[in-house]
Amino acid sequence: MAKAGPAAERVVRAGAELADEIGFEQVTPSALARHLGVRTASLYSHVKNAHDLKTKIALLALEELADRASAALAGRAGKDALSAFADAYRDYAFQHPGRFAAAQFRLDADAAAASAGVRHSQMMRAILRGYDLTETQQTHAVRLLGSVFSGYVGLEAAGGFSHSAPASQESWTEILGALDALLRNWPSPA
């Protein structure tokens, strides 16, 4: 059985650092053992298997990202809050590409319900309450914003915007402005 505690936390942090170096999909217990200079078998006292290791890295990434987003949102509302939230995600993705990929790892229902993913949803809904959207519209908006943020960051990280003007930052600012305008004028349900 995998143990929880400081040593297990160090193993997960080392796995997250390795994910940033080599990519989240490449992280395995054997790759992590090589990175740490230990035998693979010694890791199994802290993680059950590769899926458990990836789940724990995902949970760490969600927690870190929620903490950053929360700090960025403090005292902000409306477009300012939307931009701060989006920028926190984008900055995290560039500083920690493997962890950002881990934050999108599919968790089982129990792990997802107990994760910081719940905080992400709560923060996004708090931002959206300032736009006077219904509960259903908020759900649609959360999905839209998540898709735009992840999609833009993924394309940008892959170099998709590096070969043309204007600069990616200018497009990002314009897109956030367009999202703010859409949220302010969300179409009424038919």
UniProtKB/TrEMBL annotation:
SUPFAM superfamilies: Homeodomain-like, Tetracyclin repressor-like, C-terminal domain
Keyword terms, alphabetized: DNA-binding, Transcription, Transcription regulation
PROSITE patterns named among the record's database cross-references: HTH_TETR_2
DNA-binding region: 28-47
Ranges where the HTH tetR-type domain occurs: 5-65
Domain of life: Bacteria
Matches recorded under InterPro entries: Homeodomain-like_sf (IPR009057), HTH_TetR (IPR001647), MT1864/Rv1816-like_C (IPR025996), Tet_transcr_reg_TetR-rel_C_sf (IPR036271)
Protein name: WHG domain-containing protein
